[in-house]
Amino acid sequence: MPWNKDLVVLVADGAMQDVVSALLEKRRASLRLRDLTFEVVKDALHDSSPESTAVNLLRGFLRTHGRAMVLRDLAGSGWEDRGRDALAERLVQALMENGWARDRIEPIILDPELEIWLRLNSPHLQTLVTGRARRNTHLAGAAFGRRVQEAVHQWGGELDGKPRRPKESFETILEAFGIPRSNALYRELAVKESLQGCAVPSFNHFVRTLQTWFPR
To answer: Cβ of 147: how many Cβ atoms within 10 Å?
Structure first.
C-alpha cells in the first residue's frame, strides 16, 4: 500500500518534538537511515494522557503513514508502579485493537526522561552555556564539569552512570547560568551531540527501531 508519509511520531511535549524532529531531519546519516518523510505530533495531554488518547490521535494516520512511534516518559504516566514494559505492552495492545499491525508500531518508554539522551557533561552543552550565560559566566569554563556534578547530585545523583533526574538536573544547570529554558535548546544539542556509544536503553531502542524500518 502506498503511504503519503513513512512515519508519524507521537510525543508528549515540545522538547521531545524538537529533539525527534532534529534527529530525523539533520542526523539521518549518523543514524544510518535512508531519507524518509515524517510528522512529529505533540500530545497536548503530555505523559498523563491515557493510551486511548494515543489511539485517537494516531487514528487519522492509520491509512496515510506507514509506521507509527509513540514516545512517553514513564514518570508522570501513571504506570510507574507497573513499569515501562507494561506501559509499552498496553500501548501496543490499544493501537492494534484500532487497526495498526504490530510491525507498523513501536512504543518508546523513556525512563528517565528524554533529557538523558543529551549528555550533561558534553562539550556541546558547555559551549551552549558559555555562549548564553547571563550570570556566573566565570563558571562556564574550567568549573563547568563541577557545576554539572553538583546539579546531578542535587537531584539524587546517578544510577548506572546516568543522572536519576536528568530533566531537573539540566534545568538546574540552565538556572545557574541565567539561561531561560527553551525547547530550542534541546534541538540545538540534538543536532550537535555525538550519537555514538550512547548507553541509554530508550535511545538505543529508538535508533534500532528506525534502522529496522528505514535502513540506509
So the answer is: 18
